[in-house]
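hey team, just a heads up i'm posting the complex here instead of the shared drive bc the drive is being weird again. everything in one block, sequence lines first with there labels, then the predicted structure for the whole assembly after. its two chains so it's a bit long, scroll down
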Amino acid sequence: EVQLLESGGGLVQPGGSLRLSCAASGFTLSNYVINWVRQAPGKGLEWVSSLRDDATTTWYANSVKGRFTISYDNSQNTLYLQMNSLRAEDTALYYCARDYDWNFDVWGQGILVTVSS
Amino acid sequence: QTVVTQEPTFSVSPGGTVTLTCGLKSGSVSANHHPSWFQQTPGQAPRTLIYSTNIRSSGVPARFSGSILGNQAALTIAGAQADDESDYYCVFFMGSGVWMFGGGTKLTVL
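-- predicted structure starts here --
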């Protein structure tokens, strides 16, 4: 079965760091564009970042550029989102989602990140 | 600054037809924006309904359809059912790998 499973969330202080993981099963992550999308509590969806299937081309929303880094570990079939200099406004449920031919066709269940002192 | 605009709320009667729209604060929506539509119920991950303007995702009933109406993307739900009561989000591809979501529409079926 094709699945994505996020992990690594939790409570972190403002200015701190956290690394989210998105493990794929049933397919090879590096063959697809994979996105991170987040949703603040009670708010709408916000696209955060993408990693292209060449494993090197990355894109970021302005709100996270310079603070977040997206990357692959092919040996683990896992996508990461390294989040540094975290702010209260980064508090959200973070989803990873596969992009197949412009279709966000597979979503993880989401992982909660809370930035608070 | 909200670049992608959606109606915050909408209501439809059971069995009725509703069209939700998604526009750009500046400019017109085109197929090059690859509009997608998602349905989200509380506590669940989004579910893709429509991508690339009008292609239904696997398993999505035919009563959900997508189009471009004038200068906006549109999601039409025909024969609305109680379990269509959800939040609906659109997203546009803005170029250079960037996607932008609309603020979402809360659809009530009553």
